[in-house]
Amino acid sequence: MTAFTEDEYYDETFNDLQLANEELSSVRFYDCTFRNCDFSEAALRACKFSGCAFESCNMNFIKVTDSEFADASFVKCKVVGVNWTEADWPRTAGRRMLSFDQCTISHSTFIGLKLPGCAIVDCMAKNADFREADLAGTSFAGSDLAESLFGDTTLTGADFSRATGYAINPTQNRIQKAKFMLPEATSLLYNMDIEIVDD
What we know:
This protein is mainly beta. It has 2 domains: 9-88, E3 ubiquitin-protein ligase SopA (Pectate Lyase C-like, 3 Solenoid), CATH 2.160.20; 98-192, E3 ubiquitin-protein ligase SopA (Pectate Lyase C-like), CATH 2.160.20. The protein is built from no helices and 12 strands. The chain has a 6-stranded parallel sheet, with no helix packed on it. It has a 4-stranded parallel sheet with strand order 1-4-7-9, with no helix packed on it. It is elongated and about 65 Å long.
């Protein structure tokens, strides 16, 4: 039984919703806040979330088929195993589409998405797939990116300060003006067929 009876919601706050394994279809949310809600394995079909905030929610393995996310923020959420490529994205991203802060987004897929200016800050983002995505200006600050995939990814002006575990081949990704910190930045040299020696 779904908790939503209307087609559209504006400026509402939803607390402690239990929507695990539920299906939500064609519901639009504008500037709404979701707190401590369980959406795990829910199917969100053709829904819209514009200016919405998700706080301490479980969104593991949600299906986002044909759903729209614009200026959506996730704070302290579990968002594991989500295939974001199934969502409905604009051809040109005019503003920040997604923001993750202190979230777990491991095993998620962002292949080929245009999401410049995204934020993936202080997150556990292990084994995520960012290949062929446009993530120019995205902040990965403080995130654990172990085993995540970058290939033909636009990372121009991205911020990797305090990020760990990333394996980015500079010859296969666009990293001009990106920000890195030592000692993690030495990983950028691993694909250069050079020998790094300690003094």
